[in-house]
Amino acid sequence: MELERMSAALTLAYQEMAAAISDFQNTHRLKLAKVTSEYFRAFTGSSSRGVEIDDDFRVTVNIDGQSVVPAQLSHGAQDQLYIALRLGIAHLLAEEMILPFVFDDPFLNCDQDRLASIRSSLSSLSTERQILLLSHRDDFLSWGEAVGVVNKARIR
Length: 156
Hints:
- Helix content is 49%, strand content 13%.
- By secondary structure, the protein is of the alpha+beta class.
């Protein structure tokens, strides 16, 4: 009798834990999709695009009602999607903290129109958080304040 009660209690605890995990994943999955969609729309300048994340956290993009996998997007649109996902994840992970973003030679596949959209979005985002853009490209010089490293000789 005691063993049956323990078994029933463990079964119930497992079911409750599984339901809590599922609820947690669904809630965060939907929040991540919503936040990422907002960033993606801002980067692409298209209000008809949205990011969807399924139960297994696979990402698709909804374009005018049609779902496409990231590999079906142009390389520039893939860059925009990955940046949007990165910002969405950071937003959810650090809701209480405002973290800086570091981009190291980003936007390699973006044409001038995409770069203009990304620049505008990052400029808006820079009012709430620090953005560091590391690049060898001269076309990013006008995006913010240049910062350099001065190599000083060691004092003995």
